[in-house]
Amino acid sequence: MNPSNPTAPAETPTGPSNFIRDIVIEDLKTNKYGGRVHTRFPPEPNGYLHIGHAKSICLNFGLAAEFGGKTNLRFDDTNPSKEETEYVESILTDVRWLGFDWEDRLFYASDYFGQLYAWAVQLIKAGKAYVDDLTADEIRQYRGTLTEPGRESPYRNRSVEENVDLFERMRAGEFPDGSRTLRAKIDMASRNLNMRDPVMYRILHAEHHRTGDAWCIYPMYDFAHGQSDSMERITHSICTLEFEDHRPLYNWYVEQLGIFHPQQIEFDRLNLTYTLLSKRKLLQLVEGGYVRGWDDPRMPTLSGIRRRGYTPEAVRNFCANVGVSKTNGIVELGLLEHYVREDLNKRAPRAMAVLRPLPVVIDNYPEGQVEEMEAVNNPEDAAAGTRAVPFSRVLYIEQEDFREDPPKQYFRLSPGREVRLRYAYFIKCTGVVKNGNGEVTEVHCTYDPATRGGNAPDGRKVKSTIHWVSAAHAVDAETRLYDYLFTKENPGETGGGQDFTSNLNPHSLEILTGCKLEPSLAAATPGDRYQFERLGYFCADPDSAPGKTVFNRTAALRDTWAKIERRGDRR
Ligand code: ATP
Ligand code: MG
User: Which end of the chain has fewer CB within 10 Å, C or N?
Assistant: First the structure.
């Protein structure tokens, strides 16, 4: 149902569609699930969520919301050794940050251990599962290959009584890790390797983050996932393409058990250039100290991009734009940045900041005088109003806005040249002071009092407008500039014997200290985002403290994606 018009029939949607949405619309039309749409997002709590997960979250929550359905958040915590409470907490925070609400439907696969065990016994009693004494290695050898059928385990034809007894004793902790498994009895000659008597349970004497030591046998993902979906009465179980070959097994379990049958639908994983989206590899970056944590602003994790200053709106727009398909592709990282700029351009207040300061002294400006200049907060948003920025005799400008010996096309400040100071006056350079190395350490200027506000009454023009900060009023700050974390479009591609860390960009972080910010930025709190005029989008970092201001550069102003699109148009 369309929430904006609850009576509108679902089969007359507006807006772009995708094949999964089309399936949902068709199922509503045929009343397949009694008009219900119920999805779930099932992260394994073994790492922080990344931008790929955002695609899945937006798809699952977005579809349900569009059709008046529900979405569960379910931790797929069947694997005891890796799961940590820290990951659970971070996942809850990140899904909420993206803007989605699971209401009272937070579940854990581990809550179902008892029911899953009972279902395993049910399959044993139906002659559909058996306890196997082969080791993991032997199971692999017996499995066969894509071209050769597998061989049946010598333990495959145990009696039901013996299987029930052994499985109970597995549970009771009588056997060491890896000594036995419970396997589904399906077909060792199946063309699908997942159907060759897959393992349902393994013995693992390991502490679980929720069930403690209550269990020493744990269900495999395939045996847990579909039944969890079924218990929650999920209608559309949406997952990524690598699970396509698991679908027959997903169906087999729910059919053999005779329980509610959700439908599994696979879509393409998000891949991004210059980015790795694998929790295992991201963990390696964290543990190896290559980044400062899961929330390092260079990381593709949701906590990283949040710290960097990306907005949930930008991420959702990006996810909607990349779409959903049946073939894996790779998306330009520039496209994500494009949506970040597009969103921040609308909402980020403007401010003036000088990252690499050069002092400018206005010799004819009265010593001790301060004027309040009126600056526009956001030209894209009239309601944002204006603010007062103090102007005085000594200012900072960017080092790169001055050249003693300007090349031809350089129109910013240089000896004898007049430029406009944004929201203030025209100034003209009259001289410089240099240090012993011949470097300019101070620029001297005169200002024209008649040009207050930035226009000359005689109509004379200047070719450039530069930003500035009053030295006496400036807030000192550290800014952190980021570049791509990897130098290769495909960071997984490495030369002989090297791993992906050899593709790390040694210049991905540049820290600038002694930056000068306009005084209004003293009020910034971590997470506040601004456009520093002419420089880019910046976000106050949680490392800020009283007397210490730290900003992250979220994105430069230049939109490389717009260029990519233009290039695309020309082809
Ligand atoms: P990773 O490879 O990063 O460890 P995963 O698939 O093991 O990812 P899960 O926690 O199992 O991570 O994923 C939860 C959900 O998010 C799954 O439904 C999975 O298909 C989906 N997902 C994970 N990575 C991506 C991605 N790159 N693009 C789209 N969906 C993804
Ligand atoms: Mg997984």
Answer: C
Q: What is the mean pLDDT of residues 460-480?
A: 98
Domain ranges of the chain: 19-267, 279-349+477-567, 359-380+398-465
pLDDT at residue number 1: 38
Indicate the Cα dihedral angle 240, 245, 250, 255, nearest 10°. 140
DSSP state of 366: P
In this structure, are residues 429 and 415 in contact, taking their beta carbons and an 8 Å threshold?
A: yes
Ligand 1 atom at minimum distance from 278 CA: 3
Q: What per-residue confidence (pLDDT) applies to 241? A: 98
Q: Tens digit of pLDDT for each residue in 238-272?
A: 999 999 999 999 999 999 999 999 999 999 999 99
| Ligand with the closest atom to the CA of 266 | 1
Q: Could you tell me how far CA 261 lies from the centroid of its own chain?
A: 32
Give dist(CA 72, CA 106) in Å, integer.
Answer: 6
Q: Residue of the nearest CA to atom 2 in ligand 1?
A: 278
Among 53, 107, 333, residue to substitute to test ligand 1 (most atoms within 8 Å of Cβ): 53
Q: Classify strands 509-517 and 181-184 as parallel, antiparallel or unpaired.
A: unpaired
Q: Is 324 a residue whose pLDDT tops 60? A: yes
Residue nearest to atom 10 of ligand 1 (CA): 43
For the chain, give the percent of residues with pLDDT over 90: 92
Short-list 265, 302, 366, CA closest to 32: 265
Cα 134 vs. chain centroid, distance in angstroms? 42
Longest dimension (CA), the chain: 103
Strands 536-540 and 529-532: antiparallel
Question: What does CATH list as the number for 359-380+398-465?
Answer: 2.40.240.10
* 279-349+477-567 placed in CATH 3.30.420.40: no
In degrees rounded to 5, what are phi and psi of residue 477?
A: -150, 160
Two domains, one topology: 279-349+477-567 and 359-380+398-465? yes
**Band (496; pLDDT cuts 50, 70, 90):** confident
Indicate if the alpha-carbon torsion angle 500, 505, 508, 511 is positive or negative. Answer: positive
Ligand 1 pocket (Cβ < 6 Å) reads: 42-44, 52-53, 55-56, 239-240, 269-270, 277-279
- pTM here is 0.93
Cα–Cα distance measured from residue 233 to residue 511, given in angstroms and rounded to the nearest whole number:
51
Per-residue CA distances from 431 to 70, 312, 367, 428, 465 (Å): 69, 48, 19, 9, 19
Inform me whether the pLDDT recorded for 565 exceeds 60.
no
Q: Which residues are catalytic?
A: 44, 269, 279
Distance from residue 219's CA to the centre of ligand 1 (Å): 19
